[in-house]
Amino acid sequence: MEPILQVKNLRTSFMTANGEVQAVRGVDFDLYPGEIVGVVGESGSGKSVMSMSILNLLADNAVIKDGDILYWGNSLLNFSKKEIRKIRGKEIAMVFQDPMSSLNPLMSIGKQIGEMIAVHNPELSKLEIKVQVLDLLKKVRIPEPEKRFNQLPNEFSGGMRQRVMIAIALACAPSVLIADEPTTALDVTIQDQILKLLRSLQEEMQMSILFITHDLGVVAETCTRVIVMYGGMIMEEAAIDDLFEQPIHPYTKGLMKSMPSINQDRKGELEPIPGSPPDMLGDFAGCPFAPRCKEARRICGKLLPPEVYLDPTHRVRCWLVTEQAKQIKISQDEVLTNNAGRGNNA
Ligand SMILES: Nc1ncnc2c1ncn2[C@@H]1O[C@H](COP(=O)(O)OP(=O)(O)OP(=O)(O)O)[C@@H](O)[C@H]1O
Ligand SMILES: [Mg+2]
């Protein structure tokens, strides 16, 4: 099967007064038709910058320094602004965390959803558009669509507003949906309903979904495959069951131990990962996680580990799994202790 979306060696930086913030540092992955892939990682790991790069929604100080983004084999980076606008919404759509900032507070939600349809289908009449909007409101399970059609965003609850955003994203039946923390701002029961909705819509419409979240518990419920990001890189990628049964990267293991959503039966034993994410300015000397890693060896702070495939669907970027590391025969006294003073990105 051919991938619908391919991200190849993507590097995205921001030019700032302090220097170059290298937010995405060589990310590679494929998204296949009909699958839901999760992207997890702590705040600042580059999840949003990576996904904004796909649709060219980056801030003005951003530069895509290297790599490519292919949609059905065609480079989106070679598309003109006009061509990208045609793709956006119609082929690839996005849902963000905060519906209030993306909705126009002064326009009825029926009209806002209708605008998305009208932009991509100028031949449709007003009535035809309204029929489609009502259909979409039903699809995202908003009760009493006729009545809701004319209401303003502030007449909707947070969860209902997120359903409106999903309706806008689905208005043109995109093949790919990028959902960037779509449930983070919602309370747990509403979050659950939105996740169920996304899953059933995915089945109904046969979309591919890139699901971005910092919560591994949400990934476990929603996705078939997971990408774990840290410091703008992919640290581990695996099928969902493999990742939960056999996490390899110390960062993945750390995330699992630190999350309430997947440790409900052992609440007292949550272990936050000590330390904080790396400074994204400049180059890293070694593995970006080394300063926080319990298992780090001397080499980890010095050289970036290569990516290793444990099997065709499970890859890890960690010295502990490489043949080289075994050959170096790291002795126990070389295991570095976790002291906060040791930075690896000087
Ligand atoms: N416009 C910008 N100018 C400079 N740096 C930026 C800009 N936008 C993002 N960054 C930096 O890029 C890095 C990656 O940010 P990104 O928003 O992708 O993280 P994230 O993984 O989505 O985090 P979160 O979970 O908080 O949403 C961060 O260090 C951030 O500070
Ligand atoms: Mg983000």
Describe the structure concisely for a colleague:
The protein is of the alpha/beta class and 346 residues long.
Describe it.
By secondary structure, this protein is of the alpha/beta class. The protein has a domain at 32-58 and 77-242: 3-Layer(aba) Sandwich (Rossmann fold). The protein is 31% helix and 23% strand. It contains twelve helices and twelve strands. It has helices at 47-54, 81-87, 99-102, 109-120, 126-139, 145-148, 158-170, 188-205, 216-222, 240-245, 250-258, 323-327; strands at 5-16, 19-31, 36-40, 62-71, 74-75, 92-95, 176-180, 208-213, 225-230, 233-239, 307-311, 314-317. Strands 6-7-8-3-9-10-12-11 form an eight-stranded mixed β-sheet, sandwiched between helices. Strands 2-1-4-5 form a four-stranded antiparallel β-sheet. Strand 7, helix 8 (188-205) and strand 8 form a beta-alpha-beta unit. Helix 4 packs parallel to helix 7. The radius of gyration is 22 Å and the shape is globular. The N and C termini lie far apart (43 Å). The relative contact order is 0.13. The model is unreliable at 328-346 (pLDDT under 50). Bound molecules: adenosine-5'-triphosphate (ATP) and magnesium ion (MG). Residues 14, 16, 21, 23, 41, 43-49, 59, 61, 214, 280 line the site of adenosine-5'-triphosphate (ATP).
